[in-house]
Each structure stands twice: as structure tokens, then as C-alpha cells.
Amino acid sequence: MTKRFYDNLIFFEEIVAVVGNKKDILKIIDDTLHTHILDEILSHLPKHYHGTFLTHFQNNPTDINLLEFLKKEAREDIEKVIAMRAKRVKKELLTEVKKNK
To answer: Is 19 helix (H, G, I), strand (E, B) or coil?
Structure first.
């Protein structure tokens, strides 16, 4: 799993508990979650901050200051927004994984 500043909000351990150590599936889930979370972040961040955020994220995706920036500049409680989206996407993905076991 790729380390990112929002990892403490998504509880990836729940996924590992279901999927196990299947690296290919974990990578797909990680990438899918990341795409959804970035979509959520950019949807709640005013457009004039997108470039600043994405540049900083690309340079240092684990920097906790990114979360502080988002908490200051986003239109809603970004931690709650990220956690809710992650929970929904994890549920959908794990349902699919369980169906295909």
C-alpha cells in the first residue's frame, strides 16, 4: 500500500483482514480508493487551490501538512468527507472481493 497523508482516515487494515496478502488485489483497491479520495478532495477544495495542493501532494504525499491545508481551505469538514467516501468505497470493493472468492 502506498503511504499517503490521509491513511489514518481510511483504515486500510480492514481491507487487508479480508483480502489477505494478495498484493495484486490490494494494489487495485489502494489505487481505486486513492482515485475516489482525490476526487472527493478536489470536489471540496476551491479550484484556485487545486494546483497548490496537487503539486505539494505529488512532491510529498505523506506530508501531514496537506491535511492541515485541506482543513483550512476546503468547504466542508474534509476529514469527515474523506472518511465517509473511503468507508463507502471499501464496502463496495470488499463486497466484490467476497463475491469472487
So the answer is: helix
In this structure, what C-alpha cell is assigned to residue 49? 487551490
* Distance (Å) of CA 53 to CA 23, 36, 69: 29, 16, 8
What is the full DSSP assignment across 65-97? Answer: HHHHHHHHHSSS-HHHHHHHHHHHHHHHHHHHH
- What's the pLDDT tens digit per position in 19-58? 888 889 889 999 999 999 999 999 999 999 999 999 999 9
Closest alpha carbon to 88 in 20, 37, 17:
37
pTM as predicted: 0.90
Contact in structure between 66 and 4 (CB atoms under 8 Å): no
Q: Are 86 and 15 spatial neighbours (Cβ–Cβ below 8 Å)?
A: no
Domain boundaries, the chain: 7-99
DSSP letter, residue 64 = T
